[in-house]
Amino acid sequence: MYRTETACFTGHRPEKLPWGSDESDPRCYALKERLGDIVEALYASGIRHFICGMARGCDTYFCEAVIALREEREDVTLEAAIPFDGQSGKWSAQDRKRYYYLTAQCDRETVLQHGYSKDCFLRRNQYMVDSSSVLVAVFDGTAGGTSQTVSYASREGLEVISINPYEL
Fold it and tell me: Which helix (H) or strand (E) holds 44?
């Protein structure tokens, strides 16, 4: 897959979202709808391959939006960029079940390393950016992994499409 045909995603985990884990919140619905619209617009612009880091929260919403698009457009592919084997090991049973379902729906899994290390999420994020021409970000401006990924993508010349979850 060519970099020009690829988009990746970064976004906050539930702990940093204004609605937390409450996906019935209208703002969460609005975010999911916005992500679906963005994924469709990216497809219309020539993007066919999407890479997701498979974290809890916004990554999950993005992954589900791409799966929904793939049901309509059979040339869409979805890649799970997994920072280390066992990424979901300490998650709740419900979150793990969703994770396993979503990774099974992916066309490709790229596991960046076998075990956890301090920089494994950074390496995953750099891999996604280095493989893409567009970054979609759910980002409220606070410091952290999402901020670092947005900064790296900007330095690397990617188009960055940013959604502030506090402005939904």
Answer: helix 26-44
Q: What is the pTM of this model?
A: 0.97
Note the Cα 23 to chain centre separation in Å: 17
Give which of 89, 92, 62 is closest to 78, Cα–Cα. 62
Residue 39 CB neighbour total at 10 angstroms = 25
Q: By CB neighbour count within 10 A (0-12 exposed, 13-18 middle, 19+ buried), where does 40 fall?
A: middle
Instruction: Give the C-alpha separation, 76 to 72, whole Å.
Output: 9
Beta-bridge partners for 77: 49
Q: What is the pLDDT of residue 122?
A: 97
Q: Could you count the other beta carbons within 10 Å of the beta carbon of residue 121?
A: 20
Kindly report the CATH number assigned to the domain that includes residue 101: 3.40.50.450
Split into its structural domains, the chain has a count of 1
For 156, the enclosing helix (H) or strand (E) is none
